[in-house]
Design brief:
It is built from 20 helices and no strands. By secondary structure, the chain is mostly helical. The protein folds into 4 domains: 57 residues, Annexin V, domain 1, CATH 1.10.220; 71 residues, Annexin (Annexin V, domain 1), CATH 1.10.220; 76 residues, Annexin (Annexin V, domain 1, Orthogonal Bundle); 68 residues, Orthogonal Bundle (Annexin V, domain 1), CATH 1.10.220. α15 packs across α16. It is elongated, with a radius of gyration of 21 Å. It comes from Parasponia andersonii.
Length: 315
C-alpha cells in the first residue's frame, strides 16, 4: 500500500505554472515545489513535465536541478523522473562509485517484477547508449561480477507454481556449497538468478526446515566478504522485500551524514508501492515510527519532502 497522497483532478498546466513561478526571481519557493510534486503520482508528474516543456520550451528537470541543491535536490530529481528512468539513473550512480554499491543493482534486479526490470534495462540503454549489463560487468570483477550480471540479465517466471521436489534438491545444493565454503559455486548463482521468486522461497523455506537456520544467515557467515554480503542481500530482497527495506532504512538513518542516499532511495522508490507496509514493519522492529526517525535525523526542505512522501506533513 502506498503512502503517497496524490491529489485527483489536477491540472498539469496549472501545476507547471506554479513550478515556473517557484523557480523565478530571487530565491526558490521550495515549499511550493513540495506541495505540487509531493502530491502527484508518476503519471501526473510526467504530465507536468510535458506541460512545462510545452509552455516554456524548457526542461523542468534541468530547471529544478539548477535551482535546488544538496540532499533535497537529489530527492526531487529522483522523484520527478519516470520510475524506470529513475532506477536506471540510480543504477548508473551505484555502478560508477569507487566501490560499486551492489545493493542498488540487487534491489532493482530482485525486487522488481521481470517486466519492471526489463523496463529499467530499456530506460538505461536509452539514456546512456549502453546496456546496464555491460556497465555492471565493466565496473565489477570476479564472483561479484558473475552474480550481478546474472541477476540484472534475468527474466524470471512470475507465476506462483512451485516444484517441491526441485526445492528440496536445490536446498541441498545450496547447503553443500555453504558447507564447503564454495559460495561462488556456479550452481548457487544459477539458482538465485534463474528461478522464480515463488520457487526460490520454497527452496529457502525447505533450507530453514532442514537446517533450523535461514540461508541468508548462512550465506553471510561470521565474517562475510562483499560477495557473501551480496548473496545475503539477494536472498533477503527476494524472500521479504518489506523487511529488506525496513533494515535498509534503519541502517541508513543510523548512519545519517554518510548514507542519506539509502534513505532517499527507499522512500522515493516505495512511496507509490508498499511504503505503508514498510513503515509498519519499521515500527515493529524499532519501536519508533519511521516518520519520527526521519523527522529527527533530517532537516529543512529535504525533511519536508520525505515526510510528505511518507504521508505525514504534521511536523
Amino acid at each position: 500500500m502506498a503512502t503517497l497522497i496524490a491529489h485527483a483532478d489536477i491540472s498539469p498546466v496549472e501545476d507547471a505554472e506554479v513550478l515556473r513561478k517557484a523557480c523565478k526571481g530571487w530565491g526558490t519557493d521550495e515549499k511550493a515545489i513540495i506541495n505540487i510534486l509531493g502530491h502527484r503520482n508518476a503519471a501526473q508528474r510526467k504530465q507536468i513535465r510535458e506541460a512545462y516543456e510545452q509552455l516554456y520550451e524548457e526542461d523542468l528537470i534541468k530547471r529544478l536541478e539548477s535551482e535546488l541543491s544538496g540532499d533535497f535536490e537529489k530527492a526531487v530529481y529522483r522523484w520527478i523522473l519516470d520510475p524506470a528512468d529513475r532506477d536506471g539513473v540510480m543504477a548508473n550512480v551505484a555502478i560508477k562509485k569507487s566501490e560499486t554499491d551492489y545493493r542498488v543493482i540487487i534491489e532493482i534486479s530482485c525486487i522488481h517484477s521481470s517486466e519492471e526490470l526489463l523496463g529499467v534495462r530499456r530506460a538505461y540503454q536509452n539514456r546512456y547508449k549502453r546496456s546496464l549489463e555491460e556497465d555492471v560487468a565493466a565496473h565489477t570483477t570476479g564472483d561479484l561480477r558473475k552474480l550481478l550480471v546474472a541477476l540484472v540479465s534475468a527474466y524470471r517466471y512470475q507465476g506462483d507454481e512451485v516444484n517441491a521436489r526441485l526445492a528440496d534438491a536445490e536446498a541441498d545444493i545450496l547447503h553443500k556449497a555453504i558447507k564447503d565454503n564454495s559460495f561462488n559455486n556456479d550452481e548457487v548463482i544459477r539458482i538465485l538468478s534463474t528461478r522464480s521468486k515463488a520457487q526460490l522461497n520454497a527452496t529457502f523455506n525447505r533450507y530453514r526446515d532442514d537446517h533450523k537456520t535461514s540461508i541468508s544467515k548462512d550465506f553471510l557467515g561470521e565474517l562475510g566478504n562483499d560477495f557473501q554480503k551480496a548473496l545475503h542481500a539477494t536472498v533477503r530482497s527476494i524472500s521479504d522485500p518489506h523487511k529488506y527495506y525496513a533494515k535498509l532504512l534503519r541502517d541508513g538513518i543510523k548512519r545519517f551524514g554518510t548514507d542519506e542516499d539509502s534513505v532517499t532511495r527507499a522512500i522515493v522508490t516505495r512511496a507509490e508501492k508498499d511504503l505503508y507496509q514498510i513503515k509498519e514493519l519499521y515500527y515493529k522492529k524499532n519501536s519508533v515510527s519511521l516518520d519520527d526517525a526521519v523527522a529527527k535525523e533530517t532537516h529543512g526542505d529535504y525533511k519536508s519532502l520525505l515526510l510528505t512522501l511518507l504521508g505525514n506533513e504534521g511536523y
